[in-house]
Amino acid sequence: LRHGWAEKSDCFVFGSRGGQVVLPFLWERMKDRMPPVVCINGGCAMGLPRPIHWPDAAVSFLLIGGEDYFRGHATAEQYIADTKACVPEGNSTTAILFVNEMEHMPPASLLGAVLPMMLKAILRWKRHMSSPPREHFRKILEKLNTAGWSGRFLFTCGPGEWAPEVDFGPFTVHRHVATEMDIEASQAHEHQGDSSPIQMTRKAELKQLLRAAVRAARPGGGAPLASPADRF
Asked: What is this structure's pTM?
């Protein structure tokens, strides 16, 4: 901050502790002047020791995983609902991408497929705050669908207003239909107290590194449909 690097940056990418510690610090200091961000693991949207001063004008794209230990003991529905609930009511420039198969360290095959387009999306969104980058979102879902990843995508389309959620998988992309589990997850968030922050031990960190290495050694870097033959 002293050297003005943040103001000179077009955007930021944070992951793990960066999303838990660095991003909230920059948000608090820079407020609406903060460049757009991609937050891998969604650390800014989880139980932390201190309040998060999430600016209403912040442009953010959160990438969270169903196999990430940041999820804790929550179900997928609860994890998505909790993450969504952390976005301030006045914010209209946040997207959340939940990938069922993603662990704490996203494989290169996943990041290579979506990160470039995520960066383009937030840069475009910053220039046109009132118009979500829907075409960029469509291309992200297309890449995820082709590679066989599954999960859910959601984004704000106005202050406190969310566009219809989208489920995606290897052979389908369609609007999410709310279930009793969704309703229960939302109600559970409203009644739960502050959760303890999730922290990674050295042993757990080494375990994640090993799992990431094993996944990277698989054909296609661990993408579910790594080979064209898998796609019929």
From this structure: 0.84
